[in-house]
């Protein structure tokens, strides 16, 4: 259900951006480091949205990578902790049998 709401909100945002971009078709000056060019405002708007999406996606991927590495670290710590517990239980059983 959460994924469906995300898809619906994304489609609504895309439609609003597309309508806004289509309304604004006049040429505007775009200042570069080495000069100036006149581009249609629709390309400037869509380019800005695309750059924002790429940056947001990159930040999200970094966050996911960090969480996955933390999960791997915690799982390995849990496994080693469980291994110690199993070893301790095994050793205590052996000691009990030796005492009998």
UniProtKB/TrEMBL annotation:
<dbReference type="Pfam" id="PF06305">
    <property type="entry name" value="LapA_dom"/>
</dbReference>
<keyword id="KW-0812">Transmembrane</keyword>
<feature type="transmembrane region" description="Helical">
    <location>
        <begin position="39"/>
        <end position="65"/>
    </location>
</feature>
<dbReference type="InterPro" id="IPR010445">
    <property type="entry name" value="LapA_dom"/>
</dbReference>
<keyword id="KW-1133">Transmembrane helix</keyword>
<dbReference type="GO" id="GO:0005886">
    <property type="term" value="C:plasma membrane"/>
</dbReference>
<protein>
    <submittedName>
        <fullName>DUF1049 domain-containing protein</fullName>
    </submittedName>
</protein>
<keyword id="KW-1003">Cell membrane</keyword>
<feature type="domain" description="Lipopolysaccharide assembly protein A">
    <location>
        <begin position="24"/>
        <end position="76"/>
    </location>
</feature>
<keyword id="KW-0472">Membrane</keyword>
<feature type="transmembrane region" description="Helical">
    <location>
        <begin position="7"/>
        <end position="27"/>
    </location>
</feature>
